[in-house]
Amino acid sequence: MSLNPRTDPDVIKILAAFASLPRLRNSIPPSCLSFSQFKLNELPNIRSIFHVISIDLPEKPQRMQKKAEAKHRKACEAKGKRLAQQFLDQWPDRKVSPNGFDSDLLDVGLATERVMPKWERLHSNLLLSEYVIHVQDVLKDHKGGSGTSRPKAWRWDQEPFPGTSYDPVVPSISKDLLSRPLAVSFGPQACELLLPRDSKLASHIEGSAKPRMPAKETVELRQILSDLAQASNPLRQHYGLDLKMSLDALERTSNQTQPDWLLLEIDSDILIQWEQVDVAHAIIAPESRKNTVLQLNMGKGKTSCIVPMALAAIGDGKQLSRLIVPKPLLLPTAQMIQSRLGGLVGREIRHIPFSRKTKINPQILQLYRNLHQEMLDSQGVVLIAPEHLLSYKLSGLQHLASSNLETAREVLEYQTYLSSIARDILDESDVSLAVKTQLIYPSGKQTTVDRHPHRWKVAQSMLSLVKDHLPKLKQDFPRNIEVLKRGQGYPMIYILHADVEEDLHRRIVDDICTRRTSFLRFTGCASDSCSPDIRRVLLGKTLDMTLLERVARQFTNETIARKTLLLIRGLLHHRILLLCLRKRWNVQYGLHPTRDPMAVPFEAKGIPSEQAEFGHPDAAILLTCLAFYYTGLSLVQFREALRHILASHDPASETTGFSGTNDNKTMLPLTIQQSDLPSLHQTNAEVLTYLLQERNRGYHTVAHAGRRLSETEFLGQLRDKKIRVLIDAGAYILEMSNEDLVKTWMDIDTQPQAAVYFGADNRVWVRYRGTKARVPLLATPLVDHLDDCLVYLDEAHTRGIDLKLPKNARGALTLALGQTKDHTVQAAMRLRQLATTQSVCFFAFPETHQSIFDLLEQTCRTNEQLQNLYISQGTDFCNRVNAEWENAAFLFDAQDESAFVKVLRHPEQQTLEQLYGGRTENVHSTSSPTIMFPQLEAFGNKLNQLLLSTSQTADNLHSSALEEVEQEREVEFQVKEVREVQKALHYEAHTFPGLHPAISSFVSTSRLCGNVGYERVLNAVSHTSTGERSGIGGTGSSLFVSAEFIRTIKTNERGLIDNFLRPVEWILYNPVTSDALIVIAEEAEPMIPQLRTQAFPPKVHLLTYSAPVTKKMLPFSGLRYYCAPALPREHTIPPSLVVELGLFAGRLYIGYEECVSLVKYIDDVSASRRSNATTKNTRFILEWTSLRRKGQDVMHTPLGYVCQGRPLGIEHAFFVTRHAADSGVMKPYHTSEAVTEAPDDDEEDEDEDEGGRQYDVQEG
Predict the structure, then answer these.
(1) Is the pLDDT of residue 1153 over 90?
(2) pTM for the full model?
(3) Where is this region: Disordered (predicted)?
């Protein structure tokens, strides 16, 4: 062998080692007869075993195959995977058996026979792998030096000795052996010969390989995942199997350089690793040739290395490189990419934002195109946020919906061009592609929610009931609920178990049934036997509308009671109340200091969103109430509230106190799939094993003697444990700002000389001990080492942030209720050396106790809760794309445009019946996609399968009405969901064209002639949403309005004018015919001279009016406050005209005598209609008045009492009057009297009759 030139000398050396080394000579090789398809350390996995089992499964369904056959195939696959998992759990046993596994769908015996040969082959190869590794270890211990000398060949160029020459008869050592040099020296190559070249072990033999995972963590994690994979819930099974595959890859555990990458290495002083090259190639040219999401562990250089590598390779002048990152990370990402690509690589980075505020005109659109073209030509990088990208897309569709076809065509065509040339890379894709991330362009007019403002009062009453029941709940469930009292304010509530939730619901329903609530009033004849029916309505799984109507009749106002019952059902049955109570104030929601006083989502602790809002109306109402309960009123808000109260009807009558995690991979957009590299399958399990290492198992409760520690006491606890890095993932610090916290921490821990924290501007700042001014971290020597510093990472900066923490740093990581694995792992990996030298210690609140299994369970629960929203958004996407393809000529054909726009627009407002009553008419249903193109069939099938599995989950409430309509989808998701809203455009006002001839004729002739220039008052009402919905039309009324009264703003389509109704101020009145015409000030002004010069007696009078919305405005109701010219004393204005005018103007206050006229008017109007016409009319009056008053309370006014049928006596506070001289307003105008000023308030108080006597207002 040694003389054969084809023999590898290393083989000879290894054979010599077996002969000379006792450890090798005495080792016993495996006793197997043969080995086939050998791979070092090859292990079975679910995929390989299932592949063998699947040979006998039914064929995969074809396109035309029946649904039953496809369903049977899916069921067989599920059973096959469970059998594969049962086999895998028996590894590394020599034999495999079904162990009692039984199935009607699989031939278990046949499957076992098919798996057995593969199992035995792998088991034999495992024994051989162990033997090979043993040999390798021995060879490594006896490895020769690297400087082994090489014998020189014998030189044959000297003169030979004279004489006769003979051919050799034996081999010549000097000629045949020594003249042949060794191929290589006896070095590492020979030692590594036995290992396969593709095993990656050879390249890491010197210790550069990843640390082998300790067996203890492996066993523990595998046990946790086995329990999860055997759960009955399909989602948990799938999640557990995915993590087990990641663990298998971790146990099993080429650098093609481009010129730009070499420059990147030189300029950045880094060495690109093979793992980073693999990921970069997978980004540049995915094997699937489709949209792809990859996973790489935190700290492996995603943003600092891999993304710049990919951007440099993609931007070649033919493709445009675009980097999409969440808005909070724009600045640090821009700095990082600029430092990597802006130097020797020579690439320009440009941020090109776009929003609804961008004024679109030809110049702006041309600039937008030029900026992108410049970046394409210069091979630069465009940096944008997801909302910028979506805003440009939506702007084209908005102009299409507004019939601005030229602009829409220009925007949409360039969007199509961008889509063809741009390659998008998403950093932190789990944030940008989250199901809860959606951009919406609202259009149309703002309207009040159904049952406003009573809806707010019900929400406050429900929160008050919760507070009342807390002591008893705490007594009955001491371990399942935590109540944190805050003085006299509303307590913070932490519900830890479902038993408390169910008991709270029961107590609230008991309060309603036993008549202890103010928002539902039983009739006098209501029976106690109706309690079971009320419980079924409020808590039943399904709602019987007939039962609802029967229960509603037990209350004083059937219409109001029906809507209130539906509202309470939504808050209880759909668990909106509980979901809002679970949210954390100042972490997940709160008030924005400069926006409208409504609760908004928080991006992180103390950081309110600038544009987002909660999608579900009742969630927004409840969270707003809680936000004010916890925050209190600022001085400005108090003044504003006081101003509204003083403007109300009677202030004294009522006063009311690339990503590192991939847990969302099952919910990626339909056009994107998760395609992790095989070499990176270990990522998920790898980080979990870090957390299971002994040094990372520290766990402490932030409490003493059962009492929750204050923030200052918590910092003292960190000092005692010598912890200087606080990663506040659980947002424990709420009351102090980041800067205040580090100041306090430095006062408590006096040894560190500086503290590092993030400011409100998302920049890293340093505060040195003994100084007042803060300094940017980049301007200090601490940027490269933070050895003697306190470091605080608030909840907003526990991902996407990389600080050079000390090598042996020990961090404190806080846990919160409901925290997911994704959130926890992202926070823990801020310690980049967590696998080696750094460590983490967990701190939990008293109400929080979590293990690794709890984190995985919470992740499953979160994904499960988001499934309905994912289905809804996916269905909407399929419908939109299908409509776009079906109406391909929408930019040119009016019919296609109309059909496409109809699919794009979603109605937002829903009634309580639609939300909670099971009514789906007039709701944009997305429960089943309408698909006509085969390219979308796979998406539709996936959504239908998800919908089927979701409907079979008992704990998952599904309501089609709640998962539709903009962001109003499944209730739980709405409570958690964030939507981006950008303000609508301003409207252009109409110009006054001048006085219409018909009005001038009315002044001169006292007759209204023709049908132009004016219309009946109820026709004007029909121009509003309330009038249109109620079907209100013209009647024989003698009250008219001018055409200009309803012309306020210019709109692109004939729309409603809800938000642009004029107040009623001027009325032309004919005392003979009792005709009255409401005009505007511009029409009244030119008529005044003509009215004053009329012949006596005057034919037409100009009356002033203002709808009485407070008690002191009642003098306006008689229409005699100011008349030009004055009305005769003996003239009586018809009561019906006064009633109609008051209703149209939105009056709230009426005198006692006028209440009789109002009731008579309603009865007269309803007399000729069906039996329930009175109820319909009163409902319309309430809705119309709420619209007119723009949110002012209507129910607690005389008008509200009359419409609700509530009893009113003359002794009621509404009708207590004072003397005219003390009324606080000017006396009515008469020709025989002068105008007198209003008396002082002091005189008014002094003249109050002490005996409680009442005086009638005397006129004239």
Answers:
(1) no
(2) 0.52
(3) 1227-1260
